[in-house]
Amino acid sequence: MTAPAPQQPLTTPEEPRDLVGIGIGPFNLSLAALAQPVEGLDTAFYEQRPGFHWHPGLLIDGATLQVPFLADLVTLADPASPWSFLNYLKTRDRLFPFYFAERFHIQRAEYDAYCRWTSEHLPGLHFGHQVDAVRWNPERSFFEVDFTQLDTDGEAEALGRTYTKNVALGIGTAPHIPEPLKPLAEAPTVPVIHAADYLLHRDRLLAADHITVIGSGQSGAEVFLDLLKHRPAGNEKIHWLARTEAFAPMEYSKLGLEHFTPDYTRYFHALPETARDQLVPQQWQLHKGIDTDTIAAIHDELYRRTLDGGWPDATLTPGVSVRTAGRVATTRVELHLEHLQQGTRSRLTTDAVVLATGYRERPLDQMLAGLDPYIRKDSMGRPRIDEQFRLVLDPSVTGSIYVQNAERHTHGVGAPDLGLAAWRSATILNSLTGTETYRLPQRTAFTSFGLQRPDGHPAATIGAQRGTLVPLKS
Fold first, then answer.
1. What angle do CA 410, 411, 416 make, to 5 degrees?
2. pLDDT higher than threshold 70 for residue 184
3. How far apart are CA 125 and CA 205, in angstroms?
């Protein structure tokens, strides 16, 4: 039976909304939650998936967030919001258990449940809606947003169009699979899967004779630890490989964490493009390291397996890159490895591979193809983004396109950090309304990043003239 053709989109412009959000992950969910009580603000948010789920393949038992529970959707901008994590606990009669648990870092599964609770009670969210294109209508001075409404099977059910003065892009990131492993990941015979889908394939992975985990970040560490716990002592048969020079801890000192403050974000944004591009790869340990508790748990588990004498059959090797990969018959994978410091090469045959190789920002080109002539770009062809998280557009476009977690090249390592979600959402809403809808702090860090603030004033002054910073003419 032939599926019915989708209905044609509406063509009569309605009164444009104030804001349409595209994608409903934690960041646009934060924006929706903070926008909800703003009087007179007409918003709608669209998401392709049928409901909210946050990294379901990595909700491993015991895995916790790397940020405190205060880094929820709203608290750092509005602690009194009904959409806070503490209010979520209150509605579930769980405040006292949480109080006695004394947990500053909650489990990922609990954060996911909190976000789903918010998404199920917050008005104006439209799941099962795939946004196809965004265009600027110069005659009417608003954006046209075309979408496809999907049925429960993810098939097209109807076409639609909405109109808006402003857009917020929150389409998130996608799992990154290195080029040498893409052909293997796309074939079904041997499990070569990204860590994002780990729990969906865990039983199959554990049934493999030998497993290789690639990637030295938090996800790689959690997957390695979980696999290790479920393998028999003395017959673990696991390799853990990483390109980094060490299985390094995340920078989690108090002053180190100040790189995830609005102060640092403003400092980074004001730097020259070349300086920003040099900084981002150097700061990998701020956001790609492993938390010390996970490192300790891995060492404890390995140590426990030495109590009866001998060593566990687990190999942990940093400083290694995968040059090429191929199949051996139809049931095994051969990885061609190179150790950069030694200048040596080797081959590893394995029965399953988990790629903890991180995520990349989803490209905006296709969705924003109709806006390309209006978007201003930097020397590397990336969109320019102003301090208020708006794409820099041609002056003829009077509306704004805000971005969430697509601005690491302009705003630094805090772009994907949950701890800055509420502040960024509040910044966007203040920009959108043209008022101080949410009062935001002027200073958030003890560290003074640079000798001058982005506005040209001294970065810090100390009352006494002797301790005052005086900018010099260049």
1. 120
2. yes
3. 36
Q: How far is CA 82 from CA 31, 40, 70, 377, in A?
A: 14, 19, 14, 39
121, pLDDT greater than 70: yes
Residues 6+ apart with CB under 8 A from 44: 17, 19, 20, 21, 124, 126, 162, 164
Answer whether 328's CB lies under 8 Å from 347's CB. no
What values do phi and psi take at 31, rounded to 5? -60, -40
Q: Which of 473, 449, 69 is nearest to 260 (CA)?
A: 449
pTM of whole model > 0.85? Answer: yes
Digit-coded pLDDT (tens) for 64-95: 999 999 999 999 999 999 999 999 999 999 99
* 381 phi-psi bin (left φ>0, alpha ψ -120 to 50, beta other): left
Q: 2 burial class (0-12, 13-18, 19+ CB within 10 angstroms)?
A: exposed
Q: 74 is written with which tokens?
A: 């709203």
| Residues 173 and 360 sit within 8 Å (Cβ to Cβ) | yes
* Distance from chain centroid for Cα 299: 28
Structure tokens at 361: 């920002």
Three-state DSSP at 389 gives coil
Predicted confidence at residue 2, as pLDDT, reads 40
Nearest to 85 by CA among 66, 107, 100: 107
pLDDT at 450 over 80: yes
Q: How far apart are CA 115 and CA 122, in angstroms?
A: 10
